[in-house]
């Protein structure tokens, strides 16, 4: 790919439907593997992304340091602050619990519904609709040198037009 790096000052001609988000890796936590295996059905985030969002390009942090997967996502489920909830009927089968997400065994759904402390502030649950594996991952050096991204993503970054054009989704491997 011999494209010149994208400049931040250039105006995008494409709608802002694709973002890059970091996916951290820690011992015993491989969140991307859970998405790929369909064990995790929602991506939990602390912020609401633009309503035009359709795809998340997951940048997997070190030691991978590359984008290997792109997921189509739906509109987020928004969990209200716990203190803003009206009292639940004690006669309800849920015994006061609100089910914002299906209790289908997906990683995180039950804890999200229960306001588990590990999910404090993670009030936006983006349903993952599909998962695509890139035939050739986009590594950090290529992100910088070819596509003008200044460093490893630490938060939301819009996918540069040149990157969206270079990675032809229909030519990638549909995982599910």
TrEMBL record:
<protein>
    <submittedName>
        <fullName>Uncharacterized protein</fullName>
    </submittedName>
</protein>
<feature type="region of interest" description="Disordered">
    <location>
        <begin position="81"/>
        <end position="109"/>
    </location>
</feature>
<dbReference type="InterPro" id="IPR015947">
    <property type="entry name" value="PUA-like_sf"/>
</dbReference>
């Amino acid at each position: 790919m011999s494209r010149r790096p994208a400049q931040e000052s250039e105006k995008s001609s494409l709608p802002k439907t694709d973002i890059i988000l970091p996916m951290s890796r820690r011992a015993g936590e491989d969140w991307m593997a859970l998405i790929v295996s369909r064990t995790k059905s929602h991506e939990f985030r602390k912020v609401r992304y633009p309503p035009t969002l359709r795809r998340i390009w997951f940048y997997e942090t070190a030691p991978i340091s590359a984008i290997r997967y792109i997921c189509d996502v739906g509109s987020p489920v928004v969990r209200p602050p716990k203190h803003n909830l009206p009292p639940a009927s004690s006669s309800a089968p849920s015994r006061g619990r609100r089910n914002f997400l299906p209790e289908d065994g997906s990683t995180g759904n039950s804890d999200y519904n229960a306001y588990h402390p590990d999910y404090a502030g993670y009030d936006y649950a983006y349903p993952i609709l599909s998962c695509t594996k890139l035939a050739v991952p986009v590594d950090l050096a290529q992100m910088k040198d070819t596509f003008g991204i200044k460093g490893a993503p630490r938060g939301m970054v819009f996918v540069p037009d040149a990157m969206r054009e270079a990675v032809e989704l229909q030519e990638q491997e549909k995982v599910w």
